[in-house]
Amino acid sequence: VLYIAAHPDDENTRLLAYLANEKMYRTGYLSLTRGDGGQNLIGDEQGVDLGLIRTQELLAARRIDGAEQFFTRANDFGYSKNAEETFSIWEKDTLLYNLVRIIREFKPDVIINRFDHRTSGKTHGHHTASAILGLEAFRMAGNPLFQRDKMADLEPLVVPRIFFNTSYF
After folding, report:
1. What are the pLDDT digits (tens) for 10-63?
2. In what order do the strands lie in the sheet with 161-164?
3. How far apart are alpha carbons 138 and 169 in whole angstroms?
4. Cβ contact 19:44 at 8 Å
5. Torsion angle in degrees (nearest 10) through CA of 137, 139, 145, 147
6. 3-state secondary structure of 98
7. Which of 45, 59, 89, 143 makes the best surface tag, with the fewest CB within 10 Å?
């Protein structure tokens, strides 16, 4: 199972732990950003320093919940009103390539998007953008023509199912 979201604090740790430890599924969390654009209420760290702290927090959480951790190079630039605004800053094609590569390497049977891809403008733009990218990557991972010159080392992979997590619990 590959769980996809935008930020280090978006994962459903309870679900990751259940899938990894109770069901014994190989489970991964893909955070598009490292949280470097977020707020920090307990220290002075901002930007890259905050991203380093949040990266280490995620790695520590994965040691506890048993899932694997993945990242892309998406820039956490703070609050975004909608996915369109996010994609005006994020390099969508590069991030789609990153997601498809991770999917083909990890080989999940199920992808779970943390957020609904249909909610642009109703939630943080990074959240909706992560779901849009997750859905597109789900579709493109099985396409043998997608980035075939850059991914010649990886076989296309048709992932049977994709869901989005409708609850924090």
Report:
1. 899 999 999 999 999 999 999 999 877 666 567 776 767 777 888 999 999 999
2. 68-71, 28-31, 2-5, 110-113, 161-164
3. 24
4. no
5. -10
6. helix
7. 59
Output the six-digit token pair for 9. Answer: 């604090």
- Token pair listed for 105: 């390497």
Contacts of 53 (CB under 8 A, 6+ apart): 40, 43, 45
Angle at 39 between CA 65 and CA 44, to 5 degrees: 100
HEC sequence for 103-150: HHHHCCCEEEECCCCCCECCECHHHHHHHHHHHHHHHHCCCCCCCCCC
Among the listed residues 77, 87, 89, 74, the one whose alpha carbon sits nearest the alpha carbon of residue 33 = 74
Residue with tokens 């994709």: 162
Q: Enter the tokens of residue 45.
A: 């760290």
- To which H or E segment does residue 99 belong? helix 92-106
pTM: 0.91
